[in-house]
TrEMBL record:
Stated name of the protein: Molecular chaperone HscC
Keyword annotations of the record: ATP-binding, Chaperone, Nucleotide-binding
Pfam families membership: HSP70
Gene3D superfamilies attached to this UniProt entry: 3.30.420.40, Actin, Chain A, domain 4 (3.90.640.10), Substrate Binding Domain Of DNAk, Chain A, domain 1 (2.60.34.10)
Length: 438
C-alpha cells in the first residue's frame, strides 16, 4: 500500500511522519534531524535553499531569506528575496517539497499523498492556500486537519481506552489554538475550538529583541532598515535566550556590532527570568480570551478537565506554563515532545484513512471552527437594508453536517437569487470572510 505521509507545516519548523509497523514515526531530513526550519533563501548562484541551510543565511544575508511566511497564508501579499518574488503559498510549497523528498529518501519509494495540519483557527482561504501549497509540491492532499486535533490523536493512540476530558493548548511559532475534546472507548470527539492566528513564540522573541535594542538606544523599526544584519543576528541571540530562560533563571545575550558581526569582546545584555516574565505578560494575557472561549463553549468547567495537553515549542516557556497552571489548577501534561506531537498525529490520521488495523478501534469527530452563513436583506418598516448576516451552521457544530434555513425572495414572482456565502461571527457580512457565491 502506498504510504500517506503526515506533515506539520509550522510557522518556525516543519516535520514529517509516516505510520509504519503499527506506529507513527518521524522522518529525518537529509541532515539527520526530524525538524526542518520553515525557512527558504535564494543563494548567490540563484539556488533555492530550504531548512537549515536557508536558516544560516538568515543571519548573514537576511535580504535573501524568508521566514514566518505561514502568517501570510491566504493573503495576496508577496515577498521579494534574492531578486525573486514569492507568495506565502509558493514558499510553503518549497518547504513541503523538501519534506516530500526527505520522505521518499527515507521510505525508498515515491510519495504522492499527504495529510497536512493547520491551526484550528485558520479560515477557509488559509486552508485552501495550504492545500494549493501541497499540490504545488507534487502532493495529493488527502485531508487538511487541525493541529490540536492531530496532537490529540497522538495522545489518543497511546491511551485509547481512557475516558477523559482533554483540552489542548497549542502555541506554535506564529499561531495559537485551544481545543476542548472528550475521549472515550477509542473515540475522539472535538467539542469546541478557539484561537488567534497572529500570536506565537515569534512575538515573545520580538519582545526581547525590542528590549535589548532599546537598551542600546536603538528603535526596532529604524534598526531593521539601517542595520538589518545587526537585527537578524541579535534576534537569533534573543531566540536562544528565550529558550534558555525556560530552564535557567537568567540568560546572557551577546550584542553584535552595527555590521552584524560578533566581536570577541562583544557587549552582553543579561536578562533574568523575572524580567522576561514581565516582558511577556501582555502576550500571556492574550492567551486568556481564546482559552476562556473554548472552555465556555465546551460547557466543561476548567477544573473538570482531566488533562491539559501542551503542544508547540512556545509552551515550554514558564510564562505560558505558569498561566495555564493557574487557569486550570493542574500541572499541564507534556508526555510527548510538544514539537513532534502534531506530525505524529497527522500520521495517525493517515492510518485512519487507510483503515490500518492498528487504529481500527479509533474514531474521530471534529467541529466547524467558524460560523457559516449567507447574506440577507432585513426590512425595517418599508425600508430594506442589505448586508446582514444569517448564520446557518454555527461554530463548534460537529461535522459533517447539513442545515436548512427558509428565507423569502425580495420581489414577487422572483425565479432566481444569488446566495453569497460567508464565514465568521459578525452581524454584518462586511465583518466576515466572503467565501463565494451560489
Amino acid at each position: 500500500m502506498t504510504p500517506i505521509i503526515g506533515i506539520d507545516l509550522g510557522t518556525s519548523n516543519s516535520l514529517c511522519a509516516v505510520f509504519e509497523d503499527g506506529q507513527p514515526k518521524l522522518i529525518p531530513n537529509a541532515h539527520g534531524s526530524v525538524i526542518t526550519p520553515s525557512v527558504i533563501s535564494i543563494s548567490a548562484d540563484d539556488r533555492v535553499l530550504v531548512g537549515s541551510a536557508a536558516k544560516e543565511t538568515r543571519v548573514t544575508q537576511p535580504e535573501r531569506c524568508a521566514w514566518v511566511f505561514k502568517r501570510l497564508m491566504g493573503t495576496d501579499r508577496k515577498v521579494e528575496i534574492g531578486g525573486h518574488v514569492f507568495t506565502a503559498t509558493e514558499m510553503s510549497s518549497l518547504v513541503l517539497q523538501s519534506l516530500k523528498q526527505d520522505a521518499e529518501a527515507y521510505l525508498g519509494l515515491e510519495v504522492h499523498d499527504a495529510i497536512i495540519t493547520v491551526p484550528a483557527y485558520f479560515n477557509d482561504h488559509q486552508r485552501n492556500a495550504t492545500k494549493q501549497a501541497g499540490e504545488l509540491a507534487g502532493l495529493n492532499v488527502r485531508r487538511i486537519i487541525n493541529e490540536p486535533t492531530a496532537a490529540a490523536l497522538t495522545y489518543g493512540f497511546h491511551d485509547r481506552q481512557a475516558e477523559k476530558k482533554l483540552i489542548v493548548i497549542d502555541l506554535g511559532g506564529g499561531t495559537f489554538d485551544v481545543t476542548a475534546m472528550e475521549v472515550f472507548e477509542g473515540t475522539l470527539e472535538i467539542i469546541s475550538t478557539a484561537g488567534e492566528s497572529m500570536l506565537g513564540g515569534e512575538d515573545f522573541t520580538d519582545r526581547i529583541l525590542a528590549k535589548v535594542l532599546t537598551a542600546q538606544n536603538l528603535q526596532v523599526e529604524i534598526a531593521e532598515v539601517k542595520h538589518p544584519l545587526l537585527v537578524s543576528r541579535l534576534k537569533q541571540e534573543c531566540e536562544a535566550a528565550k529558550c534558555s530562560l525556560a530552564r535557567e533563571t537568567e540568560a546572557k545575550i551577546r550584542i553584535p556590532n552595527l555590521q552584524g558581526k560578533m566581536e570577541a569582546d562583544a557587549a552582553t545584555h543579561t536578562m533574568t527570568r523575572d524580567e522576561f516574565l514581565e516582558l511577556a505578560d501582555p502576550l500571556v494575557k492574550r492567551l486568556a480570551r481564546p482559552i476562556a472561549k473554548a472552555v465556555r463553549d465546551s460547557r466543561i468547567a476548567p477544573q473538570d478537565f482531566d488533562s491539559v495537553i501542551l503542544v508547540g515549542g512556545a509552551t515550554r516557556m514558564e510564562a505560558v506554563r505558569g498561566f495555564i497552571r493557574e487557569f486550570f489548577g493542574v500541572e499541564p501534561l507534556c508526555t510527548h515532545n510538544p514539537d513532534e506531537v502534531v506530525a505524529l498525529g497527522a500520521a495517525v490520521q493517515a492510518a485512519l484513512i487507510q483503515d490500518d488495523r492498528a487504529v481500527e478501534d479509533m474514531v474521530m469527530t471534529d467541529v466547524c471552527p467558524f460560523t457559516l452563513g449567507t447574506e440577507i436583506i432585513k426590512e425595517f418598516g418599508r425600508r430594506q437594508v442589505n448586508g446582514y448576516y444569517l448564520p446557518i451552521i454555527h461554530r463548534n457544530t460537529t461535522i459533517p453536517v447539513s442545515r436548512e434555513e427558509v428565507v423569502g425572495t425580495v420581489e414577487p414572482n422572483q425565479r432566481e437569487m444569488t446566495v453569497n456565502v460567508y464565514q465568521g461571527e459578525g452581524r454584518k457580512v462586511e465583518d466576515n470572510l466572503f467565501l463565494g457565491t451560489m
